[in-house]
Design brief:
The chain has about 250 residues and is an alpha/beta fold. About 40% of the residues lie in helices and about 20% in strands. It has ten helices and ten strands. An eight-stranded mixed beta sheet has the order 3-4-2-1-5-6-10-9, sandwiched between helices. The chain has a two-stranded parallel ribbon with strand order 7-8. Strand 3 and strand 4 form a beta hairpin. Helix 1 runs parallel beside helix 6 and helix 1 crosses helix 7. The longest helix has 18 residues.
């Protein structure tokens, strides 16, 4: 059975978010009898440059059939290009037809802009999780997950997490044995241990006291809530004035 994989890109997209999953899918074709077919699309079609300045040929957006997998590739400009009306229509229509609609890294902004993540759990790169939550408060952002499946909507964390997600999609199509074999071929974990919070910058902060540690843990676990100085000072059991002296804002 042929399975169409369509990658959506835009200027300054992240190439690894495309090449990593594509390599995993293609290994199924080459070694395990798969019949994945690939296409790369953009709003304009033609050559699109990634964030490193490398160009990739793309086709113009067209109506999507059923039984496909649509992949929203990430990149630092995803939150801007996700607001394009054609982009939103493309993803919402793809999901409406029952296709698997997938995001890698900040590609989640494209799905969120199309309304596909409203009321759903979703993940993205830890660096952009707060921005996703503030831009789209109806999304239930989970910063710690490597990938999340909610119905026919799948989201993955940053960069290499696209490979983790591709392995799960392969398992969905061909079973665990093939997915494990592809993971071995790629020299990656079939199911990566731990979540992405182990890479988060918040873990690089060395607490100077138990109170500071409590505040950092609270902030990490309540990213979807309003974290005012007054609230965090209350968690630390100190006055807002003392709190502001403990946590210094970096210079603009």
């Amino acid at each position: 059975m042929k399975r169409q994989i369509t990658f959506f890109v835009y200027p300054e997209f992240e190439l690894l978010d495309l090449s990593g999953p594509c390599s995993a899918f293609n290994l199924v074709n080459e070694l395990y009898g798969g019949q994945y077919q690939f296409s790369v699309v953009s709003v304009t079609g033609g050559a699109i440059k990634d964030r490193a300045g490398l160009s990739i040929a793309t086709e113009r957006l067209a109506k999507v059939g059923d039984n496909q997998t649509i992949v929203a590739v990430g990149g630092p400009t995803a939150h801007v290009y996700g607001l394009n009306a054609l982009t939103k229509d493309f993803f919402s229509e793809s999901a409406r037809q029952g296709n698997r609609v997938v995001s890698v890294c900040t590609g989640a902004f494209l799905l969120a802009a199309a309304g596909l993540l409203d009321g759903r759990r979703a993940t993205t790169h830890w660096r952009y999780a707060g921005l996703l939550q503030s831009c789209y408060p109806k999304v239930l952002v989970d910063i710690d997950r490597i990938y999340i499946k909610e119905g026919n909507i799948w989201t993955a964390a940053g960069l290499t997490a696209g490979i983790d997600l591709a392995l799960m999609l392969i398992e969905d199509d061909f079973g665990s044995s093939v997915a494990k074999s592809v993971a071995k071929d790629m020299v990656v974990y079939h199911r990566r241990l731990g979540g992405q919070s182990q890479f988060s910058a918040i873990l690089d902060i060395t607490p100077t006291s138990g109170r500071v540690r409590d505040v950092l843990c609270y902030a990490r676990d309540h990213l979807r809530e309003s974290l005012s100085v007054e609230r965090l000072a209350e968690v630390a059991c100190i006055s807002p004035r003392q709190f502001s002296r403990t946590f210094l804002m970096p210079p603009a």
